[in-house]
Protein: Pre-mRNA splicing factor
Organism: Favolaschia claudopus
Amino acid sequence: MAEETTELLDSLPYYDNDLEQFPSLKEKVDREFARQPKPPTTLHPRVPPAYELFAKNPLLKAELERVESHVEAQKLDTLRYQLPAPSASGTDEEWQAALKNAHAQLEHQRMRQTNLTLLQTYGSNAWRIHNYLLESTVKQAEGALEELKEKTVEVNRERKNMQTKLGNQLNSLETRWTELISNVLQIELANVALDAEVNGLNAREAELAEMNR
């Protein structure tokens, strides 16, 4: 048989209102809190170190640092998308460079056309699937959040009901204790009165006995 453990509750926040009833007590509590040392600025040794993002990707790491430091991104270089022609007296090297640039631009346009064709063919379905997955993830997260909120509300409700019940018991016990103390005081006063009466009778008896001699 396992030993039964009893819970010891020394604080009932849903029931105790001494701080509201006695402002002087609240001032003492505030002064005591002000005397407490400030919380440590360093983390506990068991807290794992901060996770370093993009440790194996220097480009993404540098971009993350740029965003965190609020530095404006570099503007796109549009010169490579232009086709500047050499002057009429251009050299062969300049014309060769212009020709290579034209080939590069043509290839770029061809790739854009291919990508647009693929996007028109498969993009809508891929986008729908992606949105469906996102909506499913959002629903799961919202469901978990609602479940956690319900559990939190239920725990607080149980705590409030339990503390209210214990508070009523404390009120009943305190009232009973006050009644018992009052009864004891009344009995003590009655005993004192009886002692005084007995002492008076004894003194009277002594006086009568002295007179009869």
